[in-house]
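hey
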């Protein structure tokens, strides 16, 4: 992404476009705020007359909503002219957007003399509809709901300093026992109680899945190997898609009955297989009481 000519930043009002432009300016992009899309060809013309190595970051938002109908046409023109561009869409959930407007005492750009929270909510909904096509066209969507300004800086640095996008996402795998309650903080949960239980092997019962004797037992079964292969393929497919949606961490729970044997061994092996595929992964064990 280092050699992209134009970065187009758009998204919901209050989602962090100003902060994103500051970051891109620090990365030596020539930043232009609130440019109507129809003027992109004129900017390209000026680009050709000046230093051709200069990179531009252009913020386009709802303040120029009458020009949004030109966005797709202008981007197609840009691509057909031989210039590379990257469209970034900044998203955020409604309660956080309303809180940000309240804290900064700014009015939403679509608010016309109405300041009550309900009218702001309605205008955010309208803005979402107006920006739906731009979101669909985006190369990357960054959800800033839980991002601090520094997190957004790190995210943009990862994208525009050459780090592959999926490298910015970490897969967090944790083992747990269903007898102690199913997790509420996992994005995905897998039940591995279909694997034969080492608990019923006398010499393995007092051990955990961290012991090679237990893991060797758990991993020896064809059904285990089949699950590991399918899981690794699934997560390898999902990681780039989740990263594009702005997710920084994918949390996966692996559960067995007590969280001592099968889930522990599987969590460790899954993390190892993902690391082999150059996917950042880590494991921890909820019922054992310490991280890996």
């Amino acid at each position: 992404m280092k050699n992209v000519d134009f970065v187009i930043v758009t998204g919901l009002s209050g989602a962090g476009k100003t902060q994103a432009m500051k970051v891109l300016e620090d990365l030596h992009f020539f930043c232009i705020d609130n440019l109507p899309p129809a003027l992109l060809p004129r900017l390209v013309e000026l680009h050709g007359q000046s230093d051709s190595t200069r990179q531009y970051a252009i913020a386009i938002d709802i303040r120029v909503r009458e020009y949004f109908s030109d966005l797709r046409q202008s981007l197609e023109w840009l691509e057909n002219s031989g210039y590379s561009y990257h469209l970034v869409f900044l998203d955020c959930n409604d309660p956080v957007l309303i809180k940000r407007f309240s804290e900064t005492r700014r009015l939403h750009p679509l608010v016309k003399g109405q300041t009550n929270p309900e009218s702001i909510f309605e205008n955010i909904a309208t803005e979402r509809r107006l920006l739906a096509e731009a979101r669909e066209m985006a190369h990357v969507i960054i959800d800033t709901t839980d991002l601090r300004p520094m997190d957004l800086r790190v995210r943009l640095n990862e994208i525009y300093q050459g780090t592959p996008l999926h490298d910015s996402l970490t897969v967090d795998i944790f083992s747990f026992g269903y007898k102690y309650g199913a997790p509420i903080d996992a994005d995905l949960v897998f039940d591995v109680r279909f694997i034969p239980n080492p608990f019923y092997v006398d010499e393995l019962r007092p051990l955990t899945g961290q012991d090679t004797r237990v893991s060797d037992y758990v991993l020896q079964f064809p059904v285990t190997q089949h699950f590991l292969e399918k899981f690794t393929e699934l997560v390898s497919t999902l990681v780039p898609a989740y990263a594009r949606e702005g997710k920084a961490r994918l949390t996966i729970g692996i559960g067995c009955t007590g969280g001592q044997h099968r889930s522990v061994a599987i969590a460790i092996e899954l993390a190892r297989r993902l690391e082999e595929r150059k996917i950042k992964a880590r494991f921890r064990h909820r019922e054992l009481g310490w991280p890996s």
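The mean pLDDT is 85. The first strand starts at residue 6 and ends at 11.
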